[in-house]
Amino acid sequence: MTEGLGREFCLVCGADPPLYGDRMCESCLRKRINLVQVPENIPWVRCARCGIVEIQGKWVHISEEEIWDELIQRHVHFHEKAEDIGLALESRTISDRHTMLHLQVEGKIENLSFQEEHKMRARMANGVCLTCTRRAGNYFEATVQLRSTGRRLSEEEFTTLRSTLDTVIESLSDDPMFFITSEGPVTGGYDVVLGSKGLARTWGRHLVTTYGGHVAESNSTVGRKDGIDVTRLTLLYRKPGYDIGDVLRWRDNFWRVASWSKDGAIMSRIDRQERTGATWRDLESSNVVAQMKDHVIVDIINEDSSVAEFLDPTNWNMAAVRIAWDHTPRQKLRLARIDGEWLALHKLGCDDENEGKSV
Description:
Blueprint: H1 2-5, H2 26-32, E1 36-37, E2 41-47, E3 53-55, E4 58-60, H3 64-75, E5 77-78, E6 83-93, E7 98-109, E8 112-127, H4 130-136, E9 142-149, H5 155-171, E10 180-186, E11 189-194, H6 197-211, E12 214-225, E13 228-240, E14 247-250, E15 253-260, E16 264-269, E17 275-279, E18 287-290, E19 296-298, E20 302-303, E21 307-311, E22 318-322, E23 333-338, E24 341-344, E25 357-358
């Protein structure tokens, strides 16, 4: 009698062991618990203008598959004791706004295997992201002005400078403020209006590092918000009218731009082995006499210790030129045409015989 009263049994139906969970048999346990809780409908928001998606208060670029994964992680709740969970998903588009998500889930609870099928409807609503809201209102924080010194830049050069902004934006984090409000050519240059001061400064540093030149900043106050001045930045970038490898007339001699420095350029003299640093202000009086793209590379026909003969590519007659101070015998010559005369150039790190016009 005592033995019968002390035995274990299912608290729901009185069945004999084995028992699980809160002392229930397998049949009663399966009737009362589910492996997952899946809502019937789940909402999500997409920007009606640009198509990016709002995820937990942030607007991000994600694929459709990533949207479904995110919704499942946020809205599908697994049993606290579930283990060895596996999930398969199939999505079926019902309309432009509705997608039915079919889920097959398996796992274990109390070492009992569960397999369940569920479906939920993903309902898309239109919204407008912060970026599009501000773009529509012509919001901006900074203006970058692309200009030049020494000579007027070509349209192709301005296009090259502008294209670096896309590279900078791609390399930065996905910040909704990194957008372009407006842009276009202006007298003497090109202006780009941006939604972020940080983006403007980062682009300015990139331009100086890549193409030399210098940046000047100015700020203007446009109002106050919450007791703090609201300012806008104007960043003026001046690209030198010369590039690395170009020949300049400076201080009554010919020089090549060897490299950029923090405040200017390293200049390499053509007629002798001499290098010196020059600031942007120092180089304001310089003139570009031969751009790198206009150099020609020729074969030597005859040479001695100071002079080399070659075929002049302008008339195909024999011509002579004084060789550069670092010339190696039997190597090709890099020449620049200056004031109707040929000038042999010494070698810089930027030189390559495959560059320029080989004749």
